Structures are given as C-alpha cells and as structure tokens.
Amino acid sequence: MKIGIFDSGIGGLSVLHRALQVMPDDEFIYYADTDNVPYGEKPREVILNIVGNVMEFLVERNVDAVVVACNTATSVAIKAMRENYDLPIIGMEPAVKKAREEYPEGRTLVMATPVTVRGDKMKYLLERVDSEHLVDMIPMPKLVRFAESGIFDGNEVQDYIREQLKGTDLDAYTSLVLGCTHFNYFKKALRCQIPERIAFVDGIEGTVAQLLRKVGRTPADASESTPNVEYYYSGRPATPKEVEQINTCYVKLDEVSRDH
What we know:
Rossmann fold; 4-stranded parallel sheet
C-alpha cells in the first residue's frame, strides 16, 4: 500500500515518523510544500488552490490514501478534498478533545497558526468539546518559520515564545495543545517557559491511528524494517542536502519524543 503524506514543510515529518513505526512494510510519499510555506499566514483561497495541486501530484502517483499532516490545510481544505477524491483522506485538527478528556481539571491553551485559530473548523470543534469555555487560543506563526530554518531553540526562539505568552496566566492551565505539526520540534524550547505540570498534547498518534483504521491495518513492529519513502519538495525529488535536513529532523523528533 502506498500512503501520501503532505505538509507545508517539515512539520508533517512528525506524522510520517510515527507512521513508519507502525506501518513498516508500506510505501510512503512525503511531500513538503516548501515553495509555499507557511500555509498558516495565507488567504483561504490560496490554500485551497495549493492543496489541490498537491493532491493532484499524489493521486498521479497512485497513492491509496492521503494524510494531510497540516492543521491549517485540514482546516481550510479537507471538505473539498473529500468531495473531489474517492480515496481515504485523513486530516488533522488540534487535539483539544484529547486535552479536555485527559486534563479536565484546568484550562487548555491551544497554540496554532492564525488560519487555524480563526477557521470555522476550530469554531465547530470548540462548540463540540468546550461547552464550559475552558479553551484559549494563541497564534504562533513564527515557530513555523523557525522550524523551516532549522532553528529549534536559542535566544530568538525564546524571546518570541516569551513575547507571545505575555499576559497569559499559565497557572490557570493544565494542558497545552500543539496545534501545528511544526510545533512538536519546540517541546524543549517551550518547556523552558511552560511549567512541567502543564502537559503537552498533540494529534499525531490519533491521526496515525485513524490512518490505520481507514486502510484496515493494525500496528506492526518496525524494528527490523528499512523505511520505504520517496521525498518531494514542492514536486521536486529531494536533493541530498534536503534528505540530510530530513534526517536531522528525525533526530530532533526522537529527542523530543524521548525527553518530553
């Protein structure tokens, strides 16, 4: 089975990273749309057009299912994608439901892109799972740009996080939802300013579990397998330098998964 996974850049590698652990015998195409990153600061109509082009690329390569490893693209385009293509399409949304169920005793803070924060999909999600109005949202668009530049910590990142959190009473929160796949790279940086008692929550595991259900699979052991992945950057095969960047991202993902 061939699975297409796409994101505006390297953020969706966090989803592929997990998928490879439980689907070791399948083929994957990963599409990083770096020509158009970040999605989260673009108009809705532009995102719809971009996503349509990515889907055409993946369908032409005979994928059996597609994972939209981008909260912004899911928010804007998932409905149109499912109307236009007859194959399983798995989207992502900020894991607010999971956060409220697992950490109900305090408030939940959601970090996401501006488009996700303002989108109708987020509005409907909160209507379903936040009847007590215990969820607050904060846009963090610059983290996407930092991630694409390979900057995951340091003074500039810390200053930005501090500025965005200014005025936020962290004592009120028990969970922090990472509502963009790029944000997983910043768990260590965020933890410098987010108290240990506040749990990080993301939708990666749930997204991959949904992929397994949609394609009728159960998790497998990847311990002896060699990943079978084709990488594309906005439709171009990844260069050796880009593959090196991807491998660096996997090392970072292993680090944050282990430590946080």
